[in-house]
Structures are given as structure tokens and as C-alpha cells.
């Protein structure tokens, strides 16, 4: 993995010191920096984060901000269409969550970002997997609930 997109759930936990996953978020962020993994932050994540906190608090000096553009919109629509063809797969998800996740996945796809970190495990199987299967692309999905040492396969 040489690049990673940060999800809103990751950013919230990174900046919220009393959150149960705060330490995991800090460990992953430090790991990304140490390994010189390019860190991306979507303008969509900035908008979502801004609902509860000042986006100036985000780790802007370490991340490349990517705007949501025409091509992302086109790809996101295609991805949403793939999911609509599997309605039973997404039946219990909020429509806005599906649309926003499709937008982020489109940005991953269009920019060849090969890592994605989130605390939204449901999206792995219900949203991302069907799109990956249909479009034949791979991204490394990182579940923020899994500590870095476990992700890396370390014993201690």
C-alpha cells in the first residue's frame, strides 16, 4: 500500500481523544507517516467532518485534499447503479450513506488510491465488495477497529 484515503469515521476518532478507537487512529496515522504512505482526504470527508467540528482541525498539513469532480460524479453514479442492481445487499443501509460511500470509492478508483481506512465495517461487504467485484479493482480495506499490530500481523 502506497496511498490511503481517510474516511470521516477515521478523522473523527483521530481527533477525539476520549473515543475508544482514538489510539488505533493515532497508531495508523503515525504508521502512514513513517512508511511515507500518501494520505488523501476527500472534500466529501471535509464536508461531513464540518458538521460537528472545524475542518481546520483535520491533519491538513499531512494530507492531499482531493476535490470531487465531474469524473468522480460519473464514476459514483455508475457504482451506485451497480449497487441498485443488488438491492437486497443494501436494503438495510441509509440511502445517503450509500451515495456518499459511492463517491469516496469513485475517488479511490479514479486516482488509483490503494488503501482505505474506515470504522464502517458494514460498507466493506455491502458496498465496496460488490463494486470491486464488478469493476475488477482492488483496494486494501483497513478496519479502524483492528489495532495496527494486528493489521500488521505482529505478536507484540
**Proportion of residues in helical segments:** 40-55%
Distance between the termini: 22 Å
Lateral arrangement of strands in the main beta sheet: 3-2-1-4-5
The number of helical elements comes to 8
Computed CA radius of gyration, to the nearest angstrom: 15 Å
The ordered H/E elements are EHHEHEHHHEHEH
Quote the CATH topology: Rossmann fold
Beta-strand portion reads 5-15%
pLDDT under 50 segments (min length 5)? none
Instruction: Round the mean pLDDT to the nearest integer and report it.
Output: 90
Shape label: globular
CATH class descriptor name: Alpha Beta
Q: What is the CATH-assigned architecture?
A: 3-Layer(aba) Sandwich
Assigned CATH superfamily: 5'-nuclease
Given the helix and strand composition, which structural class is it? Answer: alpha/beta
The total beta strand count reads: 5
Detailed description of the structure:
The protein has 156 residues and is an alpha/beta fold. The protein has a single domain, classed as 3-Layer(aba) Sandwich (Rossmann fold). 53% of the residues lie in helices and 13% in strands. The chain has helices spanning 8-15, 22-34, 43-49, 70-84, 87-90, 95-110, 121-135, 148-152, and strands spanning 3-6, 38-42, 64-66, 115-118, 140-143. A five-stranded parallel sheet has the order 3-2-1-4-5. Strand 4, helix 7 and strand 5 (140-143) form a beta-alpha-beta unit. Helix 1 packs across helix 2 and helix 4 packs across helix 6 (95-110). The two termini are 22 Å apart. The mean pLDDT is 90.
Amino acid at each position: 500500500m502506497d496511498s490511503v484515503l481517510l474516511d470521516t469515521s477515521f478523522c473523527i476518532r483521530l481527533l477525539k481523544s476520549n473515543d475508544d478507537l482514538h489510539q488505533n487512529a493515532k497508531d495508523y496515522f503515525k504508521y502512514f507517516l513513517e512508511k511515507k504512505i500518501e494520505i488523501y482526504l476527500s472534500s466529501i470527508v471535509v464536508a461531513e467532518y464540518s458538521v460537528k467540528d472545524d475542518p481546520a482541525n483535520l491533519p491538513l498539513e499531512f494530507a492531499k485534499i482531493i476535490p470531487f469532480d465531474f469524473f468522480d460524479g460519473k464514476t459514483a453514479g455508475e457504482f451506485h447503479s451497480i449497487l441498485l442492481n443488488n438491492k437486497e445487499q443494501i436494503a438495510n443501509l441509509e440511502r445517503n450513506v450509500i451515495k456518499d460511500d459511492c463517491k469516496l470509492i469513485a475517488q479511490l478508483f479514479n486516482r488509483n488510491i490503494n488503501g482505505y481506512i474506515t470504522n464502517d465495517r458494514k460498507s466493506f461487504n455491502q458496498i465496496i465488495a460488490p463494486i470491486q467485484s464488478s469493476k475488477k479493482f482492488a483496494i486494501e480495506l483497513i478496519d479502524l477497529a483492528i489495532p495496527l499490530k494486528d493489521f500488521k500481523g505482529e505478536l507484540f
